[in-house]
Fold Carboxylic ester hydrolase.
Amino acid sequence: MHPLRLPSVLLLCTSISLCTASPCQDLTNIRFTSVVGRLTLGATILAGTNFTGHTAEPSFNSPQINLPASCRAVFTVATTSDSTANAEVWLPENWTGRYMSVGNGGFAGGVNYPDIVWSLRKGFAVMSTDTGHQSSQGDGTWLSNPTAATDWGHRALHLTTLAAKEIAEAFSRCEISKSYYAGCSTGGRQGLNAVQRYPTDFDGVLVGSAIPWQTHTAAWQTYVALQQYPSNKSNPSYIPASMWATIAAAVLSQCDSADGVEDGIIMNPARCTFQPEVVLCSNNSTMNCLHSAQVENLKRMYRPWLTSSGVLINPGISHSGEASFSILMNQRTPQFGPIFYGYAVVNNSNWDWSSISPATVALADEINPGGANAYNADMRPFADRGGKVVQYHGYSDPLIPTYNAAAWYDRLVGFFSDIGRGGEVPAFYRLFTIPGMGHCAGGPGAWVVDGAGQGGIVPKTDDARHSMIWSLVEWVEGKAAAPESVMGTKFVGDTVGDGVAFERPVCRWPGVAEYCGGNVTSAGSWSCPTVGVY
Ligand SMILES: *[C@@H]1O[C@H](CO)[C@@H](O)[C@H](O)[C@H]1NC(C)=O
Ligand SMILES: *[C@@H]1O[C@H](CO)[C@@H](O)[C@H](O)[C@H]1NC(C)=O
Ligand SMILES: *[C@@H]1O[C@H](CO)[C@@H](O)[C@H](O)[C@H]1NC(C)=O
Ligand SMILES: *[C@@H]1O[C@H](CO)[C@@H](O)[C@H](O)[C@H]1NC(C)=O
Ligand SMILES: *[C@@H]1O[C@H](CO)[C@@H](O)[C@H](O)[C@H]1NC(C)=O
Ligand SMILES: *[C@@H]1O[C@H](CO)[C@@H](O)[C@H](O)[C@H]1NC(C)=O
Ligand SMILES: *[C@@H]1O[C@H](CO)[C@@H](O)[C@H](O)[C@H]1NC(C)=O
Ligand SMILES: [Ca+2]
């Protein structure tokens, strides 16, 4: 066995001169120089074949159909002397020279095949890691192990990225031209954490529906369900699951036309002044209505959660996120938040989540389990070497309030302003909000934007104008200016084969597309404001 060596002079790949691959199976001879690890499988993927994963997270196991010719390399990396992360890097036969790492979701520990294939089809050499544990996205019980928490927080992605870059270059005998990251939800958090902790890992980072303030948003996911405890139907403030559709409809009827178009999409939820009293039960009606204690409970979820001295713990939900709110509001234990607190913070599987308080959040901040918070606004090391971030968030997100993205962006701008560099932020960081998009994907809006976690649904024209990832790539590579807007697509029934229902621009925060007359479904009838964005 001869270790596979990198040629002394690597060719620099461009999309014009493509690199020539070495045999996939030879990759198992690789000796890593940047990490302790081992490549266990190099398997050729023939063009037109299918692949189905077997991870602990069911959504990662959706069948991947009609693959491009590529090489699938399976490897492990030691994250400490007694822990490892599993990972795979898929290398397209005709590589463009671009490398990408993709992220995970929730607490999932598994290789994210759908996002690997999304990126592979675009010509990236692409890696995903299980982040050092195997679990479904809802299972965070392993967080009680601090080593596993740190691997998930940031360490596994960094180390497997180093290894994957070595594999990509050894396989292609070419140098990586640019390195990218894309992820949604926890994946968004992972990307921001990489920017903050490992500023040389990536040149461009696409951050979707992120949870940068892990300790705080997990607390909010717990707090918001308090009046619902424990799905207690004799509690006068309890809102039954069946009511969310009614509430969503009432919000829509009050706020849909405020943007000039009654189309089922609330373009600017920040301007929606919903009066929940319209769903208040009248004296002779008890069906499909809320009593006053329930209305108070409803109002609470829109409000920011503050400490007694008025310090923000977490923003509340945006109007238009109600329809899918049962995931937090109608479970015996709400998803995600109480798991994070129970296992990573208080380390007690029997923790009573209804005891959450600002003091619990302060404890979590002190521990910062796994170093998961990605809330360090000092991004100078990344920005100063030319790195770029594109962040986006659905404006109807029921799981991670959209205003979390705004609060984080304000923090970033605030930091750079304090050091006299506030004006530089748009030169390396841009935030977009997507009206009518839920968490990462789905909803009545034009939510197909070519990001991670969109189930492989891509715009009909996969170019920088219609794509978050391509607009980031062109910005990083100096082929286009920083994006001002990206055209979102809504497919009929969210099915690509049924054609495009409409396209609508997704604008830079805090702007949203404004109707300027003409055919509502035509993209040209909408434009992004240029004043007020920052
Ligand atoms: C791949 O899956 C598709 C859809 O299930 C099927 O039609 C096709 O025959 C499969 N191809 C191979 C090579 O198995
Ligand atoms: C890669 O390039 C070769 C030579 O141009 C071509 O024959 C082959 O079809 C390409 N493969 C893919 C997956 O595009
Ligand atoms: C939880 O408790 C176990 C058993 O004492 C300990 O090994 C582990 O480190 C603790 N985890 C956290 C997150 O405190
Ligand atoms: C349900 O709520 C009512 C009223 O708030 C309270 O008296 C009762 O103890 C609760 N039941 C449970 C099982 O929590
Ligand atoms: C219910 O009836 C009382 C007495 O008739 C009246 O004062 C009150 O306004 C009514 N409330 C609603 C919501 O209609
Ligand atoms: C009861 O409600 C109906 C319609 O919701 C209304 O027409 C009627 O006047 C109400 N009756 C009383 C007694 O309030
Ligand atoms: C509006 O534009 C769409 C295509 O974007 C077209 O299918 C539709 O017929 C147009 N409607 C009208 C009333 O012109
Ligand atoms: Ca509307």
